[in-house]
Amino acid sequence: MLRSLLKFVLLTRFSKALLAFIAFIFVYYVLAFSEFSAHNFYSARYLVVLFMIFLFVLSTLGGGIAILKSDRDFLFILPIPRRDLAVALYTAQLISMGLAVFFLLGYFYPFFPAAIRTSLLPLDIVAFSISITSLSIISFSLQFYRRLLLASFLSVWTASAMLGLRLSPAGIITGGEYLGSLSLVALAVTTTPLALKQLSSVELEFMRSLIRASSSDVKKQTDFAGLSPLRAIFSLNFFTVEFSGRMNTAGFGGGGYRSVRVRLVLLLPIMSLLAALYLLLMLKIGTFADVSFITAIASIYMIVFTLFMSLGVLGNERLWLGFTSVNPFAYLRYVVAARALSVASMFSPFAAADIVLSLLGVRGAINAALLVAVVLPCNFILVVLWSGYVSPVQIKEEGSMPSQFNLKQTLNVLPALVSIALASIVTVSLIFAVIISLVMLLSAFVTLTNKRVAEIIIRKMVDNGFV
Fold it and tell me: How many structural domains comprise the chain?
């Protein structure tokens, strides 16, 4: 029973081509690990800690279970052992969520101490993957404030490794290899039974979460009366910033789609405060180290962060509403442009902070300012249009997967690789930064205003079942 159920669950969530690709990448990483050598790179410790915090926050605040609508209508009502169902769903979740740990920790592998690279790192990767997977399942049924508390606790606990606490998940990179591994194993052992218990009654937990989400009241309504179509589109898409809880790409999410909208006027003070802290931190670090590398890394993380915002832009659109009210080509152009300008406004405090750093003589800060102010919003436009061209997926309801994970969707990861490459080139020299900024600006403008591109994207949306 378990074998057949596991096969059914995996093949309904992942295409065979994608599973074969995952297996190939897994073998490649295992072979590549043996060829790496360690580097004495102090800044890598900060990056690993930030990466671990990011995944803890992603799994708790954006947690979900890989559930399809067919599961609710068919699978959950079958007389199958609840234990087998829990194991099958957990395995699918581990492939979906745990891949991010495996791939991204592998990126930092050369910077780990020699002892942990040779003996403990495989254990740490497995324990961290299991922990992230279990946390995404556990947080699925929690209310938002409880998920926020859990994410805050895990973030503080992980960050405490930089203050000397070795009994922390990030201790594996900050000098407490054995206590850090013990923390990850303990977290995995604690959370896994809770996740399996929740999956054994997944239908009840899912309905409880769905009812709680759908029963909340709308606190503030938006009035578009008296506005022209262009002003109405900008009013909604520029002044409101939407954060999506996950995207339909294996390795970067749990299962249920969640999103939250925040008014830009409320978000700007928070971003300004974070930019001020970033500025003070860079000035403090600059007294004993070159911060150009850190400013570049901060800019890269901003670009990667916008990817999670961009892949939900088209997914939340309804063709019967927006595309029939206004000329569809103009509507697509206005929505994407308004979202890009909103992103640029949201990160403008960081661009200002980089300009201040450059005036104070910090090398590479002006490059980072161009990256944030120009490359980032232009990259946002190109990523949105690319996702519509490759494999647009419409979000029809929160809580369940919008579609099966397939190999074609992995092409959505390409913009992340291109973005990181561009950011790395921008940090080389100011001339490169100016040239790339102009090229990105021209590319975004030409692509956004090209009617042929809009026709292809709209046709693909229709072909993929958008309503």
Answer: 2
CB 358 within 8 A of CB 279: no
Same domain, 332 and 263: yes
Instruction: Give residue 393's identity as a one-letter amino acid code.
Output: V
Query: Does the predicted model carry a pTM greater than 0.90?
Result: no
Q: Do the Cβ atoms of 377 and 241 come closer than 8 Å?
A: no
Which structural domain, as residue segments, surrounds residue 12?
1-213
Ranges of H-type helices in 238-395: 264-285, 292-310, 322-325, 328-346, 348-359, 365-370, 376-390
Q: Which of 213, 234, 251 is the last residue of a domain?
A: 213
CB 253 within 8 A of CB 95: no
Asked whether 252 and 319 are in contact (CB, 8 A), the reply is no
Which positions ≥6 away from 290 have C-beta within 8 Å? Answer: 363
Consecutive 10-residue runs of the chain (467 residues): their mean pLDDT? 81 79 71 52 65 84 74 78 86 80 66 60 85 88 83 90 84 79 92 89 65 55 73 83 57 55 85 88 63 64 72 78 82 91 91 88 81 88 87 69 67 71 75 88 92 89 83
